[in-house]
Amino acid sequence: MSKVEKKPKTIKISIIASIILSISFILIILKFTIDPSTLEYLSTVTIRYEYFLGAALLNILYWFLWGARLMVLSNAIDKHVKIGLWESTKIVIANLFLAGITPSMAGGEPVRIHLLNKNGMSLGGATASVLGERLLDAVFILICVPFGLFVFKDRIHNEILNIGLTIGILVFIAAVLLFLYVIKNPDKVKSFLVFLDRKLSRFSKKKDKSKGKQIVDRINREVDNFHDSMVFFLGDGKKAFIKAGIITIIFWSTGFMIPSMILLGLGLPPFILESYAAQVLLLVIVMMPTTPGSAGVAEGGAYALYSVLIGSSLIGVFVLLFRFITYHMNLIAGAIFQYRIFKSVASFSMDMIKKQK
C-alpha cells in the first residue's frame, strides 16, 4: 500500500475509532446507570426542551467566540491582512472535525494555520496566532485548576481520576515552559529544526541540495516570523493579546455553561459553580493526548465528576446529552465545513493542504 493510500485509511480509522469509543462508553454508562428510578423520574418530571436548545445555541456561540479570538490575534499580527468574524469562525468550525478525531485536538491546529496562511498571513504569523490561542488556553486553565480542585477536594475519591488530573497539570506546565523557551531562544530552535530536517532527509531517496537549501531558508524565515509575532504580542500587540485573553475567559465560560443548561432541562439544579469547576478539571483530562478526540476518556471523566453532583440514576442521560452537544455536534458541523473547504473529509491529509496553496 502506498503512502497516499495509507493516509486516507489512517483518517478513516481515527473517525471510526473516535465515534465507536464515544458511543460505546455512553452505552456502557447508560446500561449501568439506568434503573427503575430513572424511568420513573423521566416519566413524571417536566423535561424542559428549551434548555437543551439553549445548550446547543451556547455551543454555536462558543464557535463564534473562538472565531472572534482568532480574528483579534490574527489581525493584530498582520496589519495588511484583515480577517472578518465569519471567515475566522468558518476556520474554527472547519478545524473541529480533525480536532475531534485526534488526541489533544492536535489535528485542528494545522487546519487553522493553513487556512490563515491561505487568507494571506505568513506561515510563521499564522502559527503564532494559533499557538497564542493555546498559550491563552493553558494560562486560563492553570489559573482555574486551583478553583476546580478546591470545589472537588472532598468529592473526588477516584484514584484513576486523581492520577489523570495530576498528569494533565504537569503536561500543561511543561508545555507552557517549552513555549516560553521557544520564544526566548529562536536560534536554538532553528538549529534543532535544521538538524531534524537533515536527519530525516537521509531516509529520502531523492538527494537535491538546492531543495535542501530552500528548506533551511524557509525554516529560518518562518521561525523568525513566529518569534517576531510572539514578541509583538508581548510588546506593541499587548492590547490585542489582553483583548484575546478577555475573549478567552468569555469563550470558555460560555462552553462551561452548557452542562448547567442540560441539568436545567432535566429538571435538576444547574450547579453553576460546581459545574464550572468540573469542566475545568475535565478539560485538563481531555487535553492530554490519549484517545482520538479523547473519546471514552471524556465520557468517563464526565461520569466521574458529575455523578457526585446528580447521583447515578440520571448520570447516563446527562452524559449522552452533554457529549452529543459538545462533541458529536462539533464533529457533524466540522465535517460539513471541512468538506466545503477541502472537498473531502475521510481522505484529508497534509498533502491535500499543500495542494490547496
Which short descriptors sum up this protein?
mainly alpha, 15 helices, disordered C terminus
Notes on the protein architecture:
- It is a single chain.
- The chain has helices at 3-33, 36-44, 49-77, 85-100, 108-118, 123-152, 159-184, 186-201, 209-234, 238-256, 258-265, 272-286, 297-310, 315-342, 350-356.
- It contains 15 helices and no strands.
- Residues 1-5 and 348-357 have low confidence and may be disordered.
- Helices cover 80% and strands 0% of the residues.
- It is elongated, with a radius of gyration of 22 Å.
- Helix 3 (49-77) crosses helix 4, helix 3 (49-77) crosses helix 14 (315-342) and helix 13 (297-310) packs antiparallel against helix 14 (315-342).
- It has one domain (3-356).
- By secondary structure, it is mainly alpha-helical.
Mean pLDDT over all positions? 81
Number of helices: 15
Q: What structural class results from the helix and strand content?
A: mainly alpha
Instruction: Calculate Rg over CA atoms.
Output: 22 Å
**Unreliable runs, pLDDT <50, ≥5 residues?**
1-5, 348-357
* Proportion of residues in extended strands: under 5%
Largest sheet: none
Number of domains: 1
Shape: elongated
Task: Give the proportion of residues in helices.
Answer: over 70%
How far is the first residue's CA from the last residue's CA? 27 Å
Give the SSE string. HHHHHHHHHHHHHHH
Number of strands: 0
